[in-house]
Amino acid sequence: MGEEMESKREGAANLDLWVISVLGKDRPGIIRDILEVPAKMMVNIVDLDQRILQGIVVMSMVADFGKATAAPKELEGSLQRLAADLGVEVSVLPLDQYRGRRRGGKNLQVVTILARDRVGIIYDVASLAAERGINIERAQVTARGELISIEFVMDFGALDVRREREELKAECEKLGLDVVIQDLDKSAKEKRLIVFDMDSTIVDFETINQIAQAAGVDREVEEITKRAMNGELDFVEALRSRVGLLRGTPVEALEEIAANIQLTPGSEELIHHLKEVGYKTALISGGFTYFTDILKERLGFDYTFANVLEIRDGLLTGEIDGEIIDAAAKGRIVNDLARLEGISPDSIVAVGDGANDCLMIQNAGLGVAFNAKEILKKVSDGSLSKENLIGLLNVLGLAEKGSDLL
């Protein structure tokens, strides 16, 4: 129906078009009662948008009077008599008087904003869009506790979309707003699988740093970890160096860390909800299988991939057993999972926090940087701050929708 409406809109430039607007208290049957009037007068409805806002019905129609048996003023009179009985307000106005300047060449993007609710968020984002000549076509609010989500559909028109997306993300971040931007067509593709990094994403710390603390080499390991996450060191080299420092650590240290593993706030609820609605889930980590195996059992991941710590006689040898899961491996695994599940990579969502997640993020249909380093933000579709991981449900359209704004 959407394509049919769009086709009618594009071909209706020379028709006798008028806008019918309705505002009033919602009740069952109100749309039928209103549409009955133009139907009997042979007035063709070529576009329609109807929403319920806090119990109020808001409806706008574009009506073609080309073959109508009544003039616009006659229709308006009949609708207003009906409106008095229905308790609504109706107006009929010529479309050309109000038609917007943008008639074609649209480039629609879905811009999802997440933040703790405060006065002025919608105004702030609208101002950023207006300053760049970006037209807001639709906006919708969803509330989840203290978290508010606003989903905008914005028309970037002939602007440089890549540059404008980056600037809009940067400006939103300055305002303390999380933002994810997706091409409208791409966002409409059904998502089937979501892959997560483990450390500092699903788990609220870097597991290798916890092991290093038990081994008494935490300062050395943390420094290498920091440089690797910022992209200053090759991941494979950094991992081997860090694991080498763990030589001689008893396996009991890993057992204690696993027993007290701390999940990122919202991660357990998020994964539970994703599983409940039919998503497949995967954990792709540059960390260690000792912990991903535990999380697979605890959270129900369908797939887990990580590095294997070599253990002999109950002690870490300081070596990795087998292939290392680095950035290239993470990117490859996303494509492998797509083939395994029989889906397009566009149906995959990837969430991570560091440089090692860049290819994983880029190879997925939607890539989200979580509490991330700048190097990852630059290649992602947007970012979520630490307290907003559960907001991924809003980005995926899985949270209950609230009020329409436009």
TrEMBL record:
GO terms for biological process: L-serine biosynthetic process. GO terms for molecular function: L-phosphoserine phosphatase activity; magnesium ion binding. InterPro entries: ACT-like_dom_sf, ACT_dom, HAD-like_SerB, HAD-like_sf, HAD_sf, PSP. One of its GO terms (cellular component) is cytoplasm. Residues 19-97, 110-186 form the ACT domain. Its EC number is 3.1.3.3. The keyword Metal-binding applies. The active site is at D197, D199. The keyword Hydrolase applies. Pathway: Amino-acid biosynthesis; L-serine biosynthesis; L-serine from 3-phospho-D-glycerate: step 3/3. Its cofactor is Mg(2+). Keywords: Amino-acid biosynthesis, Hydrolase, Magnesium, Metal-binding, Serine biosynthesis. CDD domains: HAD_PSP. Belongs to the HAD-like hydrolase superfamily. SerB family. PANTHER family: PHOSPHOSERINE PHOSPHATASE. This is phosphoserine phosphatase. The lineage of its organism: Archaea, Methanobacteriati, Methanobacteriota, Stenosarchaea group, Methanomicrobia.
